[in-house]
Amino acid sequence: MNHKAPYVNMKLLIVDDDASIRTMLLKIASSWGYEIDECSSAEAALIRLEKARYNVVLTDIKMGKMDGIAFAEKLRQTMPSTAVIIMTGSPSAKTAKQSHEMGAIYYLQKPLDIDTLGETLRIAAVWNIGKLIDRGAQRFLAVRKGHERDKENRIQAIKSTMKRLIASSEWLTALRELVYDQDITSNILFIELNKKFSTDSIHTF
User: Fold this and answer.
1) What mean pLDDT, rounded, does the chain reach?
2) Which of 71, 91, 96, 131 registers the highest number of CB atoms within 10 A of its CB?
């Protein structure tokens, strides 16, 4: 079964207080083409997330002072487009319900099945890209002036262009930055979209 990351430069953050689990996940997911960072606690992950942006976060549920459920809640409040996968060695209907309600996209049981892990990462990554493209297109129009007319058609045209661009490795990082950075006017994706879309046309050249 092919578990290769669906796009180049897909960033994955692994959060688990068990170093052996982090090492195993890093080795496996790296072989599938994900760019990986790791943290040993939810608190450390939140500090890292103040500066770094990830497509997918894979987190354990039982960790130190802050568990995976609380971590997922905080993450989704500030970065709702980030896909979250919660892992647990002690599954229950209650924790599964909590993880879903807090915005976790998926819920995996330890010990992890490799095929289930690979497929879940791919699905979560594709979900994340869809969300980033939606938000990126809306943000581009919000910054650009003169695009109010025929907004829905413009959004669809911009999203189609984004999908074509991120097939190339250089654009996925720019897409994350387009969604999350405060100033996007120097963003290479914003500049490229500016070239392709005039204020009077929804068509690409």
Assistant:
1) 87
2) 71
